[in-house]
Design goal:
Layout: H1 7-20, H2 27-37, H3 45-56, H4 63-74, H5 106-110, H6 112-116, H7 132-137, H8 146-158, E1 165-174, E2 179-180, H9 182-192, E3 200-207, E4 210-215, H10 221-240, E5 245-250, E6 254-256, H11 258-261, H12 266-276, H13 286-296, E7 307-311, H14 320-333, E8 336-341, H15 354-360, E9 365-368, H16 372-384
Parallel strand pairs: 4-5, 4-7, 7-8, 8-9
Antiparallel strand pairs: 1-3, 2-3, 5-6
């Protein structure tokens, strides 16, 4: 058994061994097994073996070979019974210690080396001590592998993006409100035949509407699907916060996808979007799409209170003067206009394209969106925006 004792490293090596012996193991299956082991008792050999068999085996005839390779690789014997839980003086079960996600003590405790020398200090391979999440946060979306993409998707589900508040016309009861609640005060006075107490009220605060325009042209194809997954996770958070959220894709035409993002599973939502969007991975006519948005959707969505995000690299085939006019109109009608450019994450990037130069003068904030750390920076930028 390898001496590091870290689960992820052993799973990768074990998957390579299975592939060498002719078993078809995908990275998605390996990720499923890693997630399953986080919720199991890692000191129970049978549970680990069963989880591996259910996650990695696709054919019944492969089970004997898998069992043989599992036993030989981890130096385990299935005749061993799971360890009994210890009890305290009162006879109650002791709570087992919580395992770290990437570390497992099963292989260290049951391997022959650890049983012969129980007092020997365990050597830790520090190459796996660095958090995978922290490393992936700064890795560009365009360079992620399939397994790393799955890890980034999990991080996106935990990211909280909270737009600033706005003052609503609705009123709510308040102890320190600036307005008298006359109706409630008179109702109380009629009950007790005198004015004993005066009630107050104040304006109710609501989250500002969020509108996102995402570029799905050919130049954005590397980032499009992962950013759409981010929009799906954002849609789920906003539904819980009772906030208005609208999303559109644009290439050569504008397409509303808010109803597609309402689906429960992100893969189903993205598949439905790709079927509906007819200009996927095509050209970019940003000025025409913004003209369509300003003419058809600005008043319908209450744009004067909304926070608008445009996700694009700025490559545009339309006239830059027309793009500047549409950007000026959009910026004048919305609360704040933020442009997210994945190319901005490069150290040598300069906004030299005609479309980007025409749009820069009408943008409130210009931010990168090339990795997960840039999404965290966007959440911080939202936090710094003034409320009301």
């Amino acid at each position: 058994m390898a001496q590091s004792g870290y689960l992820l490293a052993h799973l990768i090596k074990f998957a390579i061994l299975l592939r060498d012996k002719g078993l078809k193991i995908t990275s998605e299956q390996l990720g499923t097994l890693a997630l399953a082991l986080e919720h199991l008792n890692l000191q129970d050999v049978d549970e680990v073996y069963t989880a591996g068999k259910l996650s990695l085996i696709n054919r019944k005839e492969d089970i004997p070979l898998f069992a043989q390779l599992f036993e030989s690789y981890f130096n385990l014997s299935f005749s061993k019974k799971p360890q009994q839980l210890e009890t305290d003086k009162r006879g109650k079960l002791k709570r087992p210690p919580k395992e770290r996600p990437l570390e497992v003590s099963l292989f260290q405790q049951l391997s022959p080396e650890s049983q012969t020398n129980p007092d020997q200090e365990t050597l830790v391979d520090k190459r796996f001590s660095y958090s995978v999440s922290e490393r992936l946060k700064h890795k560009a979306f365009s360079k992620l592998s399939s397994s790393e993409t799955q890890e980034i998707k999990k991080l996106m589900q935990r990211l909280l993006l909270k737009p600033p508040l706005r003052r609503s016309r609705r009123q709510m009861p308040s102890l320190k409100g600036h307005r008298l609640d006359l109706r409630r005060s008179f109702r109380y006075a009629l009950k007790y035949q005198e004015f004993i107490k005066l009630y107050h009220r104040q304006a109710k605060n609501k989250l500002r509407p969020l509108i996102i325009l995402a570029d799905i042209s050919g130049s954005m194809e590397v980032y499009s699907r992962l950013l759409l997954y981010f929009l799906h996770s954002l849609k789920g958070q906003i539904l819980c916060q009772d906030q208005k959220f609208e999303s559109f894709t644009f290439g050569t035409r504008l397409t509303r996808i808010s109803h597609r993002l309402a689906r429960r599973y992100p893969d189903d939502a993205i598949a439905a979007i790709s079927d509906e969007v007819k200009d996927w991975a095509g050209g970019t006519r940003l000025a025409s799409c913004l003209h369509d948005f300003n003419r058809r959707w600005s008043k319908r969505l209450g744009l004067n209170r909304a926070l608008v995000l445009i996700i694009s690299d700025g490559w545009d085939q339309d006239d830059p003067k027309r793009l500047s006019q549409e950007m000026a109109r959009l910026h004048q009608n919305c609360y704040k206009l933020i442009w997210l450019n994945p190319l901005l994450g490069s150290a040598n990037y300069q906004p030299l394209s005609r479309g980007m130069q025409a749009a820069l003068e009408h943008i409130d904030q210009f931010l990168p969106v090339h990795n997960f750390a840039s999404l965290e920076a966007l959440a911080l930028a939202f936090h710094k925006l003034k409320n009301l």
